Amino acid sequence: DGGITQSPKYLFRKEGQNVTLSCEQNLNHDAMYWYRQDPGQGLRLIYYSQIVNDFQKGDIAEGYSVSREKKESFPLTVTSAQKNPTAFYLCASKGQGGDEQFFGPGTRLTVL
Amino acid sequence: RKEVEQDPGPFNVPEGATVAFNCTYSNSASQSFFWYRQDCRKEPKLLMSVYSSGNEDGRFTAQLNRASQYISLLIRDSKLSDSATYLCVAGVDNQGGKLIFGQGTELSVKP
Fold first, then answer.
1. Cβ contact A78:A23 at 8 Å
2. Nearest Cα residue to A45 out of A37, A32, A56, A34
3. Judged by CB atoms within 8 Å, which residues 57-96 of A form the interface with B?
4. pLDDT band (50, 70, 90) for residue A1
5. Measured between alpha carbons, how far is A36 from A8 in angstroms, rounded to an integer?
């Protein structure tokens, strides 16, 4: 089955700890994206990558970092510098020839 | 002002009703438009793309008016299973395929 996987589904961390969220896709998509969703709000773009070894900041990149060493993988690190890390994190990918993005199931991060 | 604005919800309608959602966008560079559906605590799923000529998929009809920067979604003969949050989305193609999401409109279809 082709698709996007994110792990873990739920994650709890203590304040001050860095945490890395996994995103993997086997759709052979070049572009990948990370969004954050807070209750009652639209998705906001954190980082995106259009090609391996390249990525750009989105609208709310502060306190986050990413890497794109492989086409299939786009992990997101939430650092201790992120002031309000508790949120629902969604990874998406987009293939060539289409504008629509397809989402993974998301990771709910709670910082205690 | 938000870049994509949607009707405030929630919309509570009886089964079989017709319901319309409206959305406006402010970025004139937007070239692609979509409606996504998001169920509670799940990821958004693409419902349909929106074209200038309008497009229909079964009970769902989407319209785009570029001059007014306005997008709509019409759901006919609504089903209980249509209950979800509907997200209006505009794509900014010259920014790496960035999508700008509205905050969503919640629909609840009652028996």
1. no
2. A34
3. 58, 88, 90, 94
4. low
5. 15
